[in-house]
Design brief:
The protein is of the alpha+beta class and about 500 residues long. Helices cover about 50% and strands about 20% of the residues. Strands 4-3-7-6-5 form a five-stranded antiparallel sheet. Helix 2 packs antiparallel against helix 5, helix 8 packs parallel to helix 12 and helix 11 packs antiparallel against helix 12. The two termini are about 65 Å apart.
Length: about 500
């Protein structure tokens, strides 16, 4: 495959990146509807207007032939049988005026309105009707003979102002050429023109347009709603698949339900499941290796630690004792790291799911852990205590949660141990447990040097230490967060007042 051909899908995906599939489908389906709606309105309007024009032209043609029959040739000229009453009827409606002109030969005015423009036809056919649109300019009243009562009323109204231009209007005209004259009469050609204002025809066209567009608009709106509903219903399985993926934790590698996906994306879902399976197997293998390695290292490290303690008792030379002490410290730190790795392995989702969850009295557990760590705190010069009189607590069973007691104990041990390690000699560490609504809050507060605000989130990452003080391995707070999240809780670090650091854990309570 050529590079140009291979780049076509990439460009296509780049153009559609970040756009909602539902919106794109809706727009692509709505666009043809709009085009079809415009085309239907245009053709329907033109069709209706054409039939209306045909009806109007038919009436003009009949009027021109009827008017031609009123003009009869005689031996002395033309006899016009057109009573004034008929003329007044034709000119009485100002909104739908009917104009007429009779001339013979064409150009020599006989009857009607002399300002009606003649047709631009070089060789007209006798007896044929010709239709055309033109502009009619009303002549000054002084040039018109008051042939009808309407004309006489206009003449009585006085002359038109010289400054006002004569009114004009667009008219539809039919022209009829006739041969006049028989044996014994004067022969020639007669032109009969009948015009009608376009105002009524344009009004009729607007009504046709409105009557055409309104039903089509309602139909298009109904189709749009139906299409939108159909798109939402058709993409509902994709939305379900999306919620399954978005609602997962970052370390949740369970496979996606392929049956919930439509056939068009099942292959994609299967490919994702294959990838998730490979990643899960790799992660499990890595965790198993760490767990196995930690288990294998526990015994020799414990033995090494014991042997160095015995050697320290018997060693008399200062230089030898210093070397043995460094070995002992390294063995202690390695043993601590191994224990932390094992704890972290137990806190992982796969391991946590296999352990039973039961009701745990977090207040009682905090007192027990605090009591266990008092010797370590005394050795480090730390004043460690548990505040049982915190506001909101009611005795020993005031903070029940549902979880894994072993993991919750490890979380408390790591929080308190972290405070003992980094608060500094002479500091105070206070443990509090209280109920707050539908949550149980555990706080471990110290008055040590504290932690900068930009480091408080960073120290929850694995193997990250904010200071070189102490002999920690950078896993304590990572283990705490892992365990707390497995119990649907959250942990934060805040500044204590007036100084120090406050670690706060919130877990959902099982009270009520």
């Amino acid at each position: 495959m050529s590079p140009a051909a291979a780049s076509v899908p990439a460009r296509w995906f780049a153009r559609g990146a970040g756009r909602s599939l539902q919106r794109q489908l809706f727009l692509w389906l709505l666009l043809p509807q709009v085009v079809l709606w415009l085309a239907a309105a245009f053709f329907t309007y033109n069709l209706a207007a054409r039939y209306a024009n045909q009806a109007i032209d038919a009436s003009l043609s009949q009027a021109s032939r009827a008017l031609a029959r009123q003009v009869k040739p005689t031996a002395s000229g033309l006899y016009i049988d057109f009573p004034r009453s008929a003329q007044e009827i034709l000119e009485s409606d100002p909104s739908d005026r009917v104009l007429y002109t009779v001339s013979s030969p064409p150009g020599l005015f006989i009857l009607g309105n002399p300002n009606l423009p003649p047709p631009a036809i070089a060789h007209p056919q006798i007896g044929e009707t010709y239709f055309y649109d033109t502009t009619y300019t009303e002549p000054p009243r002084s040039e018109l003979a008051p042939s009808t009562e309407l004309d006489r009323a206009r003449a009585a109204a006085g002359p038109r102002s010289a400054e006002a231009p004569p009114p004009t209007e667009r008219v539809r005209v039919v022209a009829l050429y006739l041969r006049i004259g028989d044996e014994g009469t004067r022969s020639g050609t007669m032109l009969v023109q009948v015009a009608r204002s376009r105002a009524n025809r344009e009004m009729l066209a607007r009504r046709i347009l409105i009557d055409t567009v309104l039903p089509l608009s309602a139909l298009m709106a109904a189709m749009t709603v139906i299409v939108w509903g159909g798109i939402r219903a058709g993409l509902a399985p994709l939305a379900l698949l999306q919620r399954q993926v978005e609602g997962r934790a970052a370390n949740d590698l369970a496979t996606i339900e392929v049956e919930a996906a439509p056939p068009e994306v099942r292959s994609l879902a299967r490919a994702i499941n294959t990838l998730l399976g490979e990643v899960q197997r790799s992660v499990v293998a890595q965790k198993r290796f760490i767990s196995d390695a930690a288990h294998q290292l526990r015994t020799p490290l414990a033995g090494l630690k014991s042997q160095t303690e015995l050697a320290l008792r018997d060693a008399a030379e200062p230089e030898l004792r210093a070397r043995l002490q460094r070995v002992h410290d390294s063995a202690s730190r390695s043993a601590h790291l191994v224990n932390q790795l094992l704890t972290l392995a137990r806190a992982e989702p796969e391991s946590a799911m296999l352990q039973d969850r039961r009701a745990v009295d977090l207040a009682r557990l905090a007192r027990e852990v605090t009591a266990e760590l008092v010797p370590r705190a005394i050795a480090a010069g730390i004043d460690l205590g548990c505040d049982e009189a915190a506001e909101g607590t009611e005795g020993a069973a005031a903070a029940p949660v549902r979880g894994i007691a072993l993991l919750l104990r490890e979380a408390l041990v790591n929080l308190i141990d972290n405070a003992i390690r980094y608060a500094g000699r002479g500091a105070s560490v206070t443990v509090r447990v209280r109920a707050a609504g539908d949550e149980v809050v555990v706080e471990v507060e110290d008055d040590g040097p504290g932690l900068p605000a930009d480091e408080r989130e960073h120290v929850f990452e694995r193997f990250v230490r904010a200071t070189d003080a102490g002999n920690g391995c950078g896993l304590g707070l990572a283990i705490v967060r892992e365990i707390v999240e497995r119990h649907a809780g959250r942990v934060t670090l805040e500044a204590a007042q007036p100084r120090g650091l406050l670690a706060r854990v919130r877990l959902p309570t099982t009270a009520g």
